[in-house]
Amino acid sequence: NAGVTQTPKFQVLKTGQSMTLQCAQDMNHEYMSWYRQDPGMGLRLIHYSVGAGITDQGEVPNGYNVSRSTTEDFPLRLLSAAPSQTSVYFCASRLVPQGAMNTEAFFGQGTRLTVV
Amino acid sequence: AQTVTQSQPEMSVQEAETVTLSCTYDTSESDYYLFWYKQPPSRQMILVIRQEAYKQQNATENRFSVNFQKAAKSFSLKISDSQLGDAAMYFCAYRNLNTGTASKLTFGTGTRLQVTL
Prior knowledge:
The complex is a heterodimer.
Chain A: E1 4-7, E2 10-13, E3 19-25, E4 31-38, E5 42-51, E6 54-57, E7 64-66, E8 76-78, E9 87-94, E10 106-107, E11 111-115
Parallel strand pairs in A: 2-11
Antiparallel strand pairs in A: 1-3, 3-8, 4-5, 4-9, 5-6, 7-8, 9-10, 9-11
Chain B: E1 3-5, E2 10-14, E3 19-21, E4 24-26, E5 32-39, E6 46-52, E7 60-61, E8 64-69, E9 74-79, E10 88-96, E11 105-107, E12 111-116
Parallel strand pairs in B: 2-12
Antiparallel strand pairs in B: 1-4, 3-9, 5-6, 5-10, 7-8, 8-9, 10-11, 10-12
């Protein structure tokens, strides 16, 4: 099973450049999300989506855009990269729980992004 | 807003010994989930164990167990018979049940566990 696939695994950008981090899952999960991981700060939610065509902001959305045109894909766009966006980015997906059912989040392997 | 606190940035344990990682959280909700994730050097986030707040019994997964104290809002992870492969960053995480489809994970800042011979 592929699970959650993120590309690329590593990326170096110059300040002001744009790029898209790709995330795809093959588990038919409704819920997808993007986190960034910074030293001493854990993982913080950037954006999330509860289904195709539905997205919402998380804790740290500034500088990032998302869209969800299909169930499988949830790309994260940096329109004008800044050094403060140097981080490790994780995509995660899970089934939307029915009632009290606890559904596990599956994570991609992360993208290490450096903005110089 | 919910917060998760891990007060131990680093811990060390000898192989075959037992170690406990601490986690406290703050919430006004009564129904929620708690998780421990392991992140080895490969960066992969691996679910170690999870606990439903409505269950009084502490969760156990092989050498991993939790001490869930709901009134104290405490959720510690105990690793027994520590192995070299347990060396990793460990994150405690919270998810609110009652926000339904929009419920999201809130993470602590992590504890780096070293395992020594």
